[in-house]
Predict the 3D structure of the following.
Amino acid sequence: MLAGKRILLIIGGGVAAFKSLTLIRELRARGASVVPVITQAGQEFVTPLSASALAAEKVYTDLFSLTDEAEMGHIELSRDADLVVIAPATADLLGKMANGLANDLASTILMATDKRVLVAPAMNVRMWEHPATQRNVAVLKGDGVLFAGPTEGAMACGEYGPGRMVEPDEIADDIAAALMDGPLRGKHILVTSGPTHEPIDPVRYIANRSSGAQGTAIARALSGLGARVSFVTGPADVDPPAGVKVIKVQTAREMLEAVEAALPADGAVFAAAVADWHVASESTSKIKKDGSGSLPVLEFAENPDILATVSQLTVGRPKLVVGFAAETDDVEAHATAKRKRKGCDWILANDVSPATGIMGGTENAVTLITDAGAEVWPRMGKDEVARKLAARIAEALT
Ligand code: C5P
């Protein structure tokens, strides 16, 4: 998702600086190149050598370096990136930036850049809550600076509260979202995908033929429009898209838990083929064929209906909830009734009778059912269905 993107990463002086090394790896794993700049204070926490080794790039530390200026001046450095990121962003760096001070390489780059800036603050809770910091944050937000965190948590200094730097994978998600221009920028959308596996015993399970292709395509299309996507997926055949937050689950009950943990969201798309039942008589040890000819009898219990649960939330319900209806006959009528019964806003109905080849295939033929009635879409690739749905979601949420 970040393929070909160039990130200028300013590492400030804070204990959280060690996480910036992980951030470099995470960004490179997503296809970005990272040029590190480490402040003087930052070098007390991480060495230029480790940052350079992980980034496989030259690391810049000094404003008045004759060699660096001869190779790439600080002005050029500030422009030669798609996004400037500060992680950790200390109170000092935020203060300098908010007030236009430029007395070292990092602050000079921040003044000279013509690119967007994303900051991941990290500092002691009192420093974060200090009116001076909060004033600076307000000024910076007004200037269009993007903020990733901070979050609440235990700190190295022994205190607890807001001021903790968000984890590198979340910063990377925010970077991905910031680099994707689109109508869904700033929106959080939850997508469920894939089948669920319901265990019979430690080695056997009950599943269905869902490949996860449609849900994956939807998550990719939404993040392509700038949404921050939480992707809750069962064991699918296809890899999850890059640039989304992936939460892997096995069972329907785990999927519900993951969905609840990912809320709040502006929108939610339930594309998973969730098993209706789990094995109530699940065995903790492998069921043996004992030679007596007696056959195991499985008892089932109903799974939670995730779509209905979220649709019927009275507090924190996403503004737009989209479900799927995989039917084999009377598709439109069944899907219309399902939309009412579950309480979702839209249903994408599709005919999964074997003759259509849709389940596990690359194409889909859907009917979108909304308040306004049914809209039949022509048969098209699952990617195209995803893009069309994402565009409709963007219209509805903006
Ligand atoms: O009831 P049915 O399985 O046909 O409903 C399909 C829709 O409900 C899909 O959007 C599916 O993701 C969702 N669903 C769910 N949890 C279940 C069963 C279905 O979220 N336990």
About this structure: The mean pLDDT is 92.
